[in-house]
Amino acid sequence: MANLPERHQALLRWVEAAGGRLHPSVEIYHDPVTGGSFRVQDASSLKADDEIVSLPLSCSLSYLNAIAGHPSLSARDLPSSFHAPPQNGHLPASFLENVPPHVIGRFFLMQEYLKREASAWWPYMRTLPPPEHMTSLLPVAWPADDVEFLRGTNAYVAVQEIKALLKKEYKQAMRHLEKEEEGEYTRPLYYWAYAIFTTRSFRPSRIFPAQLSLPGNCKIDDFSVLLPLFDIGNHSPLAQIQWRTSTMKDKEGGVRVTSAMRTMQPYEAGQQVYNNYGMKTNAELLLGYGFVIPETQDFHNDYVHVKTKAGPEDLTASHIVALRPMSHPSTVVGQAKLLGPDSNSSCLPCFSHFQDSLVAALYETIARQMGDAGGVSLADVLQGRIPPQLLEEIIDALGTKCSIDLEEIEAHDPPYEAANRNQELALLYRNQCKRVLDQALATLSNVGS
Fold first, then answer.
1. pTM summary value
2. CB 303 within 8 A of CB 320
3. What is the pLDDT of residues 243-267, one digit of tens each?
4. Distance from C-alpha of 253 to C-alpha of 250, rounded to nearest angstrom
């Protein structure tokens, strides 16, 4: 069996044969930490605006491939660049008509994986972590003993909610498959497809041309898309990149769509070339990609997500508390999530670790309860130019919430040491959550000084 470097080289040849490319100064580098990554070759360099990688969308894999060319669906207007299944190779029409697009994409990935060498995407499939290695990909796929190391954190709650959602999605989707197909599309394989899309996919609105016609009520970001070769690039929130999509006629008169990723910063020989997944906290990276970024003097990614309303543990709909003040140069992700770019630069010290939207939300709620007319600016609230009693209530509410969250984590501290990578990762995450809350509480306790 070919090793991973050999499989990556076969993938690169497959992409190049389809019209894609990897910059000649960039190589796929392998080491025990990253597995595979992009790196500038020795005696080479990259300039700003150099194209790192390009890929014709005929190599992409998503919901669109599952419906492309289907005789009874309104998918005939899709560009010819979207590879369609062979005749009689589509999932059942009732399945495609009744199952959400993002779930269809996962089942299509399962279908292609089950085809093995017969799949048009086999050179890509061979580079993916196989289903039997799924327990090391994401917390949602971890064994129960490993997930227990997250208990008490908001990540633990999110894992339980994701598991429940996946179980529901799978059960509903299976109702629309033929009886003879049910045995192949197992729940563990569905979890694997979820993990692959979650850790490696991209938003279609970032890649596909704006004029792309979608069937029915499907919106452009109702699903995600896998981009072979692109997904080798690792994440850095400091990486400066740009995406570009081009459309042209091919030799046969069809439309060829190509997506490219360019670096907006230079790289020297031996440096890893990064992608940027967006401004995501360690909680989001842990749940969505299975890793966290360690704290350094120049950068930290440690935040605790706080909700002001009851509901599902949607981290994107929550507010954050930071390990270091929001105005600190290392609080890059926190600053990107502020309502105003300079909100926390001149705020009261007691608010310095809190996202401005959290303070604003508490102000609105408490002011309403106290019958205060409000009408003050965000800057007024953050700088304490509000009635003293109202300010005190906001500070108390922040302190109470942080204390409750910290007590919840401490109450579920694991009774034994970490025994594997998953548990070590969970322990690192929960300890950083405690540090974030300790710092926030220390700041709040000094409000009178």
1. 0.92
2. yes
3. 998 877 666 666 678 899 999 999 9
4. 5
